[in-house]
Design brief:
Elements lengths: L1 E6 L4 H10 L4 E7 L4 H9 L3 E6 L8 H9 L9 E6 L15 H26 L5 E7 L12 H21 L6 E7 L6 H7 L9 H9 L6 H12 L9 E3 H4 L1
Parallel strand pairs: 1-2, 1-4, 2-3, 4-5, 5-6, 6-7
Helix pairs in contact: 1-8, 3-4, 4-5
């Protein structure tokens, strides 16, 4: 049995990834603020176990308890692999840093950085000593390496997440059965986040017209296709511990 913990799994890229992983012999734990009936029905049709955990990742103090609830359902004797995908994230606030409200700054860091860090910490503790494949995939962005006007929060959070994963990789190298970590930029996906970007004003995000043009010309990648590529990478020998890559360079 392979177990998969996916944040932000009810829509967008998270849902696209979950759809690819739904098959017999897999058990999915989907963390999101709402459930996906599409995933539930597909899981039943494919004889795949699935559990939804309704949770707001901004409530960071409760994340260790959430992880405990999930790992109570994981049978270490039957498990051949345990995987965590830190996918959930927000783009707001968008705008010049002096225009960003402090409460939005805190919310952004809680969801985009603190939640993956706390889930990773809990994942390592709960899988310590498990003799199986253990992998963490952090969903990153080209914004982790390229500064964008109006995206100070998003660029910073993704850059920090990539460095965090690299540090975890270094710490795990001495373990007999290490947790492998990898950060992947999935490309420009047609999600709700893109709608927020296109709805920004020019003062908030001066590259807005570029993203509007990508949508209008049909150049955005579908969540289903991006999810297929991520699922393939997650389970393949191409998973490179400690690396940060663009999925378009892999597949």
């Amino acid at each position: 049995m392979k177990y998969f913990i996916i944040t932000g799994a009810s829509r967008g890229l998270g849902e696209g990834l979950a759809m690819e992983l739904l098959c017999e012999g897999h058990h999915l734990f989907c963390i999101s603020r709402s459930e996906s009936n599409k995933l539930k029905h597909l899981a039943a049709a494919r004889n795949c176990a699935i559990d939804f955990f309704s949770f707001d990742l901004a409530v960071s103090q409760d994340i260790p308890h959430l992880a405990g609830r999930i790992f109570e359902k994981i049978d270490g004797e039957k498990a051949t692999g345990v995987f965590l995908v830190n996918n959930a994230g927000i783009i707001r606030p968008v705008g010049r840093v002096e225009d960003c409200p402090s409460e939005q700054t805190e919310l952004h860091i809680r969801i985009n950085l603190m939640a993956p860090m706390l889930l990773t910490s809990a994942f390592i503790r709960h899988t310590a000593g498990m003799k199986m494949q253990k992998r963490i995939l952090n969903i990153s962005s080209g914004a982790a390496r390229n500064p964008y006007y109006g995206w100070s929060h998003y660029c910073t959070g993704k850059a920090a997440l990539e460095m965090f994963g690299r540090c975890v990789s270094e710490e795990q190298k001495q373990e007999a059965y290490p947790v492998e970590t990898m950060a992947v930029a999935p490309g420009i996906i047609d999600t709700d986040m893109q709608a927020v970007i296109r709805g920004s004003s020019e003062r908030e995000f001066i590259h807005r017209d570029k993203f509007v043009a990508l949508k209008e010309s049909g150049q955005l990648v579908s969540p289903a296709l991006a999810g297929k590529k991520l699922a393939r990478l997650l389970l393949s020998n191409s998973f490179s511990d400690g690396e940060s890559v663009d999925i378009r360079d892999k597949y």
